[in-house]
Design a protein that fits this description.
The chain has 66 residues and is of the alpha+beta class. Helix content is 15%, strand content 21%.
């Protein structure tokens, strides 16, 4: 039996990200992680509170259509 797919987060980090870390510090669920020189959103942790969107000075967090 195949493993279930990883949950898709309601937000995504875009190429506009400057890696300032504001989203990392503000996320109450610790759903953002550095990975390979970029940031990724962990779908299993993200609750969609959009705190990261609010604090991002580069407007680099996109809200995905659901």
């Amino acid at each position: 039996m195949a493993d279930p797919a990883e949950p898709i987060a309601p937000v995504a980090v875009t190429s506009s990200c400057t890696a300032c870390g504001a989203c990392l510090l503000s996320c109450p669920e610790h759903a953002l992680r550095p990975r390979g020189g970029r940031l990724e959103v962990l779908g299993e942790r993200c609750t969609g509170c959009l705190e990261c969107v609010e604090v991002c000075p580069a407007d680099a967090i996109a809200v995905l259509a659901g």
